[in-house]
């Protein structure tokens, strides 16, 4: 499924990200539509891993899959610590947290539209 010759859409990238996170047993996966709300991207995805090791593995596999399957090169930050990894695919921003760190920062509350409950 090498689609490097065609431009991947944000929805295609989002679908690949959600599948990768699910395949690697990420927990509490939430997707937030940023279209028309932020210049940083079209979607934000927030997920948890049970340990620093799982957070790092989820993130590494995700960036590898996006590169192999869609030709998307991601920028990552935080992989060394494994507490919180930020993956920037351009159109979709992914945050993978350890649960305690996710609870502390509460990104969902900051970005969810008013009146919409977090997907937990």
From TrEMBL:
Coarse class of the protein's main subcellular location: cytoplasm
Entries under InterPro entries matching the protein: Iojap/RsfS/C7orf30, NT_sf
Molecular function in Gene Ontology: ribosomal large subunit binding
UniProt keyword Phosphoprotein, yes or no: no
GO BP terms: cytosolic ribosome assembly; negative regulation of ribosome biogenesis; negative regulation of translation
UniProt-listed SUPFAM superfamilies: Nucleotidyltransferase
Keyword Transmembrane helix attached: no
Source species, domain of life: Bacteria
Pfam families in the cross-refs: RsfS (PF02410)
GO cellular component: cytoplasm
Subcellular location(s) per record: Cytoplasm
Keywords of the record: Cytoplasm, Repressor, Translation regulation
Protein family (similarity comment): Belongs to the Iojap/RsfS family.
NCBIfam families for this protein: rsfS_iojap_ybeB
Its job: Functions as a ribosomal silencing factor. Interacts with ribosomal protein uL14 (rplN), blocking formation of intersubunit bridge B8. Prevents association of the 30S and 50S ribosomal subunits and the formation of functional ribosomes, thus repressing translation.
Subunit composition and interactions: Interacts with ribosomal protein uL14 (rplN).
Matches recorded under PANTHER family: IOJAP SUPERFAMILY ORTHOLOG, MITOCHONDRIAL ASSEMBLY OF RIBOSOMAL LARGE SUBUNIT PROTEIN 1
Protein name as catalogued: Ribosomal silencing factor RsfS
Gene: rsfS
């Amino acid at each position: 499924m090498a689609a490097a010759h065609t431009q991947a859409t944000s929805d295609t990238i989002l679908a690949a990200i959600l599948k990768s996170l699910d395949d690697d047993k990420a927990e509490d996966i939430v997707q937030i539509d940023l279209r028309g709300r932020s210049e940083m991207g079209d979607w934000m995805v927030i997920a948890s891993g049970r340990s620093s090791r799982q957070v790092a593995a989820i993130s590494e596999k995700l960036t590898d899959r996006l590169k192999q399957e869609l030709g998307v090169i991601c920028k990552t930050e935080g992989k060394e610590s494994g507490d919180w990894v930020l993956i920037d695919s351009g159109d979709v921003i992914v945050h993978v947290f350890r649960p305690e760190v996710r609870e502390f920062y509460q990104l969902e509350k900051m970005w969810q539209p008013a009146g919409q409950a977090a997907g937990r």
